[in-house]
Amino acid sequence: MRVKPKSASGSLLELVFIVAIALGLALGIQAFIVKPYKIPSGSMEPTLVIGERVLVNRIGNNFSDPKVGDILVFHPPAGADSDANKCGVPGQGPFYDGPRSRIPCTRPTQQRSDQNFIKRVVGGPGDRIEIRDGHVIRNGELQSEPFINACGEGSECNLGEITVPRDHYFMMGDNRGASDDSRFWGPIDRDWVIGGAFASYWPPKRIGTL
Q1: 3-state helix, strand, coil in the chain (%, to 5)
Q2: How far apart are CA 82 and CA 70, in angstroms?
Q3: DSSP state of 97
Q4: What structural domains and CATH numbers belong to the chain?
Q5: Residue 14: half-sphere exposure toward Cβ, Cα within 13 Å
Q6: How far is CA 24 from CA 13, 16, 54, 82, 204, in A?
Q7: Would you say residue 44 has pLDDT above 80?
Q8: Of the ranges 81-90, 155-164, 195-204, which is most confident?
Q9: Within its chain, how far is the Cα of 5 from the centroid?
C-alpha cells in the first residue's frame, strides 16, 4: 500500500503543533516544577556570585517545610526592598543598641514585596536566633558556617536574640557584611517561599549542586 506524502501545509501545521506543545510544557515546568533564577547581587557570596544562574525547585515547596541550611528564593516583606527596611511591629526594628547588639524585628510587615530575594535559612519556627560578629547562635549554640564571608565590624554583625514565630523563617545571606536580610526586616512568612535552589547551571565552571 502506498503512503500518501504529506502536503507542505500539513507538515507546517504539524511543526507548529509540536512547537506549541513543547513551549507549553516548558512554561508549565517553569511555573510549577523548576524555575531558573539569576543571582542579582553579591549577598550570597562566596556560595553564589553575581550573574550566576540557579535552578529552583517549586514543587518541593508544596510537600515539605524548609530546613536550616536551605537556600531559598522568596518574596521579602513589603518595605524590605527599600532603604526604609520596615518592620511589622511598630517601634521595633534593627535599631542600634550599643556596641554589641541591635534590637531585632520580631515580625515582618503583613504584605509581601513583589520582588524575589535569595538567602539561606538560619532559623525555623521556634528557634532562638542571635547574631555575634556575623555568626549565628541558634538555640544557644554557635553554628558551623564555613561557607560565609566574614562580617567585618559593622553594627549589622550583631543582633539581639529573637524567637522565630510559627510558620516563619529567619533568612541571611552568606556574605554577612553585605546582605539585606532578616536582621533588618524580620523573619519571612512560610507562604512567601517560592522554592529551594538546588543546583547551579551557569557559568559552566560553577555547574553543580548547592
Answers
A1: 20, 30, 50
A2: 25
A3: -
A4: 29-209 (2.10.109.10)
A5: 6
A6: 16, 12, 22, 36, 27
A7: yes
A8: 195-204
A9: 54
User: How distant, in Å, are the alpha carbons of 105, 180, 198 from that of 114?
Assistant: 21, 16, 22
Among 106, 127, 126, which residue's Cα sits nearest to residue 182?
106
Q: Where are the beta strands (DSSP E) in the chain?
A: 34-38, 53-57, 71-74, 95-96, 102-103, 117-123, 128-132, 135-138, 141-142, 159-163, 168-172, 188-189, 193-202, 208-209
Which residue among 35, 113, 119, 200 is the active-site one? 119
CB 21 within 8 A of CB 13: no
* HSE-CB for 138 with a 13 A CA cutoff: 17
Residue 135, C-alpha cell as written in the block: 555568626
Catalytic option among 35, 43, 113, 182: 43
Q: Are strands 159-163 and 128-132 parallel, antiparallel or unpaired?
A: antiparallel
Lowest mean pLDDT among 59-73, 126-140, 177-191: 59-73
CB atoms within 10 A of CB 18: 10
**Global confidence as pTM:** 0.82
Q: Is 67 a catalytic residue?
A: no
Is residue 43 flagged as an active site residue?
Answer: yes
Q: What type of residue is 107? A: R
Question: Do 8 and 139 touch, CB atoms closer than 8 A?
Answer: no
User: In 3D, which of 32, 10, 13, 11 has the Cα closest to residue 21?
Assistant: 13
Grid cell locating 113: 514585596
All cell numbers assigned to 88: 511589622
